[in-house]
Design a protein that fits this description.
The complex is a heterodimer of chains A (282) and B (290). With 282 residues, chain A is mostly helical. Chain A has 10 helices and 2 strands. Chain B has one domain: MetI-like (MetI-like fold, Orthogonal Bundle). Chain B is built from 10 helices and 2 strands; from the N terminus they run αββααααααααα. In chain B, α1 packs across α10 and α7 packs antiparallel against α10. Classes of the chains: A mainly alpha (282), B mainly alpha (290).
Chain lengths: 282, 290
C-alpha cells in the first residue's frame, strides 16, 4: 500500500470517528431537550410531586438538591483552603508533597458508590445519625474536596514569589502575607473549584441514595437529621417505573432541569476562570 | 498578638491538611473493618460462582466477571473512537475552534450518570432488544455500550491535551522532511504522547469500573455468569450495580452486608491502584480532570 493511500485511509477513519462522536453528542443533547421541554412548565417547577412522582412537580426535589450542595460547599471550603495554603506555603519536603498529591488524587478517584457505602456504615450506622441530608452534604463535600483543593492551590501557587518577598520586607509576618496578599488571589481559584465541584456533586446519585434521600412524600426538612428528596434520586425512582408514560415524562423534565443546573454552575466556573486570567495577565 | 494569630493560622492549615489526608485512610479502614466478618467466616468461599444469601453462599465471581466484561466492552469502543477524535481536534481542526470543542466535551462530561441511565432504559435497551431479538434489552452488552459513551469525553480531552502539549517544532521538522500527516502522527507524535495516552486510558478504566447508576439501570441485575461465557447479550451484574441495588435492603452487621462491603473494598483497591498508576503516567499534565 503506498503512502498516499495510507494517508487518505487515515483521514477517512478520523472522519468516521469524528462523525460518530458528533452524532452521539447531538443525540444526547437532542433527546434531553426534546423529551424534557414538553414536561417543563411553571406548574412543574413550583408544585410538589404526588403519586410517587408520576404527577405533580419537582419544587422540593430542586430545593433538596440545592440544599445538599450548598452545605457541601460550605463544609468543603475551609478545609480545602487550609490544605491548599499548607501545600503551597508551608510544605517544603518533596516526599511529603508527593504523598499528599497521591492522597488527593486517590480521593478524587474513589468511585462514588464507595462514598455512599462509607457514609452508610460510618455516619448512618456507627455515628447513628440516621438517613439525613446533612450526612449527604458531608459525603458530597468529601467528594469535591480534591477539585477545590487543587484549584485553590494552583491559583495561590501561581502568585509570583516577589509578592511574598515584598510584603515580608514591609514587615508582615507569614500569616499576614497569606491572609492579605495570597488569599484574595487564591479565593477566585477556590470559587472556581467549588463551582466545578458542585456541578459534579449535584448530579451524583450513588453517594446519596442510601444515606440522605427518601424517594417520595418528603417536603422541607425541619432539622439537620431528616432526609430530603433530590433531583437525581427522583429521576432514579421515576426511571424504575419506565412503563408508566407520565412518570417517564416527569423523569425527562427533571433531567432537563438537572442538566440546566449543571450547565449554570459549569459556565459560572468558566467565566470566573476567564476573568481571573485576564486580570493576572495585566 | 501577631505571633498568636500566626500560630492559630498555622494550626488551622495543619489541621485541614490532616483532615484531607485522613479521609482516604478512614474510608479504607472502615471498609476493611466492615468486611472483616465476611473475610473470616466465608473466607475463600467468597471466590465461588454462587451468590445466594438465603443459603449462605457469597461467591463474588459473577459480579467481578460482569464488572470486567462491561469495562472491557466500554474501553474497546471508547479508546479507538476517542483517540481518533482527539487526533482530529488537536491536529486537524484549526485551533481557534478548540475552545468550542473543549466546552462541548466538558458539557458532555457534565451530564449526570443517572441521566445516562434514563437514556439507556428509554433508548439503548430497547434498541438492543429489537436488533438482537431478545426478551429483554437489559444486558451486559447494553451496559458496555452506554459506559463507552460515558468515558468518551475523558479519553478525548486527555488525549487531546497530550497531543496539544507536544511542541510544534516536531511537526514542522517532520513536515519539512516530506512526511504525510499520517506518518507524522504515527511515527513522531504518538510515541511522544504515549505515557499520557496510557494515563488517560488507565483513568478512564478506573472511572468505568466505578460507574454505578447507568450500569445499574441497564444491566439486568442477575447474579450469574452468562452461559456460554461469551454470551454478553444476556443480563449480568457488576460490583457497583450489586451494591447500588442491594446494600440498602441488607441489614447492617450481617454476613451478607459484610460480603457486600468486601466487594466494595475490592473495587476500592483496584481503582486506587489504577488512579495512582495513571497519575504517574500523566506527569507532564498534572491537571485534575473534572
Amino acid at each position: 500500500m503506498n503512502r498516499k493511500l495510507k494517508n487518505n485511509l487515515f483521514y477517512t477513519s478520523v472522519g468516521v470517528a469524528v462523525l460518530v462522536c458528533a452524532l452521539i453528542l447531538f443525540f444526547l443533547f437532542g433527546i434531553i431537550i426534546w423529551n424534557g421541554l414538553p414536561a417543563i412548565s411553571l406548574d412543574f417547577l413550583t408544585n410538589s410531586s404526588s403519586d410517587f412522582g408520576a404527577t405533580g412537580g419537582i419544587v422540593y426535589q430542586i430545593f433538596g438538591s440545592i440544599l445538599l450542595i450548598v452545605f457541601a460547599a460550605l463544609i468543603c471550603l475551609p478545609i480545602a483552603l487550609g490544605t491548599a495554603i499548607y501545600k503551597s506555603e508551608y510544605l517544603k519536603n518533596e516526599t511529603a508533597n508527593k504523598l499528599i498529591n497521591t492522597l488527593i488524587y486517590s480521593l478524587n478517584g474513589i468511585p462514588s458508590v464507595i462514598f455512599g457505602i462509607f457514609g452508610l456504615i460510618f455516619f448512618v450506622n456507627l455515628l447513628n445519625m440516621g438517613i439525613s441530608w446533612f450526612v449527604g452534604s458531608i459525603i458530597l463535600s468529601m467528594m469535591i474536596l480534591p477539585t477545590v483543593t487543587l484549584s485553590t492551590y494552583q491559583s495561590i501557587n501561581s502568585i509570583p514569589t516577589v509578592y511574598r518577598e515584598s510584603s515580608s520586607a514591609l514587615g508582615l509576618n507569614k500569616w499576614q502575607v497569606i491572609v492579605q496578599v495570597l488569599l484574595p488571589q487564591g479565593f477566585s481559584g477556590a470559587i472556581t473549584g467549588l463551582l466545578i465541584g458542585v456541578a459534579r456533586a449535584i448530579g451524583e446519585t450513588a453517594p446519596i441514595m442510601f444515606i440522605a434521600t427518601a424517594f417520595s412524600g418528603v417536603k422541607l426538612p425541619s432539622s439537620f437529621l431528616e432526609p430530603v428528596s433530590t433531583l437525581p434520586t427522583h429521576i432514579l425512582a421515576l426511571a424504575q417505573q419506565a412503563t408508566n408514560p407520565a412518570a417517564l415524562q416527569n423523569a425527562w423534565g427533571s433531567s432537563l432541569v438537572l442538566v440546566i443546573l449543571v450547565i449554570i454552575f459549569s459556565i459560572s466556573a468558566l467565566f470566573i476562570r476567564l476573568r481571573h486570567q485576564t486580570i493576572s495577565k495585566r | 498578638m501577631l505571633g498568636s494569630t500566626s500560630k492559630i493560622g498555622k494550626y488551622y492549615v495543619y489541621g485541614s491538611t490532616l483532615i484531607s489526608a485522613f479521609i482516604v485512610f478512614l474510608i479504607f479502614t472502615i471498609l476493611i473493618i466492615s468486611s472483616w466478618d465476611a473475610i473470616t467466616t466465608v473466607g475463600l468461599d467468597l471466590l465461588k460462582f454462587q451468590w445466594n444469601p438465603a443459603t449462605g453462599e457469597f461467591g463474588i465471581i459473577p459480579m467481578l466477571f460482569g464488572t470486567l466484561v462491561v469495562t472491557f466492552i466500554a474501553l474497546l469502543i471508547a479508546v479507538p473512537l476517542g483517540i481518533y477524535t482527539a487526533i482530529f481536534t488537536s491536529e486537524i481542526l484549526p485551533s481557534k475552534y478548540r475552545f468550542i470543542v473543549k466546552s462541548l466535551l466538558e458539557l458532555l462530561a457534565g451530564i449526570p450518570s443517572i441521566i445516562f441511565g434514563l437514556i439507556g432504559i428509554a433508548f439503548f435497551s430497547i434498541w438492543v432488544q429489537n436488533i438482537f431479538d431478545l426478551q429483554s434489552g437489559r444486558t451486559i452488552f447494553t451496559a458496555g455500550i452506554l459506559l463507552s459513551i460515558m468515558i468518551l469525553p475523558t479519553i478525548i480531552t486527555l488525549t487531546d491535551d497530550a497531543f496539544h502539549n507536544i511542541p510544534d517544532k516536531y511537526r514542522e521538522t517532520a513536515k519539512g522532511l516530506g512526511l504525510y500527516k499520517f506518518e507524522i502522527i504515527k511515527e513522531i507524535l504518538l510515541p511522544i504522547a504515549k505515557p499520557d495516552l496510557k494515563g488517560a486510558i488507565l483513568l478512564a478504566f478506573g472511572r468505568a469500573l466505578g460507574e454505578t447508576m447507568a450500569v445499574m439501570l441497564v444491566i439486568g441485575s442477575i447474579d450469574r455468569i452468562p452461559s456460554p461465557i461469551y454470551n454478553w447479550l444476556s443480563p449480568g451484574q457488576t460490583i457497583t450495580s450489586k451494591l447500588g441495588r442491594e446494600i440498602a435492603e441488607t441489614s447492617f452487621g450481617s454476613v451478607h452486608f459484610s460480603a457486600m462491603i468486601f466487594m466494595g473494598l475490592l473495587l476500592f483497591i483496584i481503582v486506587l491502584i489504577l488512579t495512582i498508576l495513571s497519575q504517574n503516567s500523566l506527569k507532564s499534565n498534572r491537571r485534575l480532570y473534572e
